[in-house]
Structure formats: C-alpha cells, structure tokens
Amino acid sequence: MPSARPEPARTLARATTPRGDIALRCRETQGGGTAYELIVGGVFAMDTIDVSTEVELARLGLAACAQPRRVLVGGLGLGFTARAVLEDPRVADVVIAEIEPALVGWAGDGLVPTLTGVVGDPRVRLHTGDVADLLTGDETFDVILLDVDNGPSFLVHQDNSSLYADPTLARALAQLAPGGALAIWAAQPEPGLLARLAALADRLGGLEVREIARTVEREGRTLTYATYQALAAG
Ligand SMILES: C[S@@+](CC[C@H](N)C(=O)[O-])C[C@H]1O[C@@H](n2cnc3c(N)ncnc32)[C@H](O)[C@@H]1O
C-alpha cells in the first residue's frame, strides 16, 4: 500500500563532470511504484513518471520514414527513445550519442534498469561524446532524433544552444536520406525553433515542418510537451 508521505529520492550514482553534476536517483511514486530520475549538468533532465513523449519522439520519426534503417539518437538518457527505435524491426543501425561517460559507464555496469538491453543491442553503436560531433554533414541517416535538453529554451548545457542554431540544423537536415525525418523533443512549445525550421525549409526546399504538441498529466500537474519534425521529400 502506498505510504502517505513518499520517501525523498535516493541517489544511486553520482559523478562530477566539466558540465556539472550528473546523478541517477530513485524515489517512490504517489502510486507506490519506483521512479528513476536523471540529473544532468545539475539540472533535472527526466524521470520515468511519464515517458510517453520520449517514446513518441521515436515512433513519430520512424512512422514518417518509409525505410528507417539508420537512426541517430542524441542522447541516451534513461533509454526510452532508443528502446522504441530498437523495437522497430526495420531498424538495422542505431548510433546513440551520449555526452556523459559516467552515464554510459553506469549503463554498462547494469546500474540503470531502464537501459538494460539497449546499450548491449548489437545494432547499437555508442558515441560517448557530443551529438554535435556527428552533425557534421558527413554521414546520412534515415531518422535523426534529438532529445538532449529540455528544449532550446531550457538547456541542460549552455554549449548545446548551437545545436538549435541555423548552421547545425541545416547540417542535420543535409544528413537526412531522401524521405528521412529529423525530430526534436522539447518540454514546452518552442515557437523560435519552429520558426527557424520553417525558414530553413523555405530556403532549402523539399522539406515539410510539423509541430506536434502533447498534454501530459504528471502527478497532478498538466504539462504540454512538443516535438518538432522536419521531413525530407522522398
Ligand atoms: C533528457 S535525456 C534523454 C532522454 C531520452 N530521450 C530517454 O528516452 O530516456 C538527455 C540526455 O542527453 C545527454 N546530452 C546532453 N547534451 C548532449 C550532447 N550535446 N550530446 C550528446 N548527449 C547529450 C544528457 O547527458 C542526457 O543523457
């Protein structure tokens, strides 16, 4: 039976990085279950209370693409987006970029239950580093999924701001195979990002831009998350 006053979160693992503290915590939920929390750069990055939009980021990106064989996922987090990608049998090759070596190490040591079966999947290549290293225009992907911040207006690392600026977005779009999809997750609507993607689509041509907003109930609060997609012509 759930207790009236849930215990405070327990820290399962913690590391100090040049970008600030990273921690894996767990706590009891109001329903008596266990929720895992990830702190990155000293900022709350996510928990497992409701991961429907992390999963939807993957599903919508994959659904928009006829043959999603090669997928780039940035970053790893607690693995829900990557797991949803791996559940699609059409996917043959998944590059996951994760900037925090500590998180990759905890995953390898089996400390993160939600990452079991994700990092060890034979289709996965882990890039322990900045996803920007892979957004260089060199490699092509059918689907590029970005969930590294709480959105461009709520960064976990200030250096990530360049990811949402025109040069990086344009390079990411150039890396889409014909019929490919770029999808970016945000914890709130991001009109600036939508406008930049729409302007790039006008300039580059052959792209369709979409905003998909979702309302989620989280422990008595109503939140609106958003996913931004740019779909390349097939
Ligand atoms: C919100 S979590 C991702 C959640 C993930 N979609 C899931 O389903 O669990 C953000 C992750 O991106 C990582 N990250 C932040 N900035 C990054 C960057 N520039 N390159 C690669 N990974 C980054 C963080 O360390 C964190 O693990």
From TrEMBL:
Keywords: Polyamine biosynthesis
Nucleotide-binding is among the record's keywords: no
Top-level division of the source organism's lineage: Bacteria
Pfam families xref list: Spermine_synth
PANTHER family: BLR2883 PROTEIN (PTHR43317:SF3), THERMOSPERMINE SYNTHASE ACAULIS5 (PTHR43317)
Protein name per Swiss-Prot or TrEMBL: Spermidine synthase
Native organism: Nostocoides vanveenii
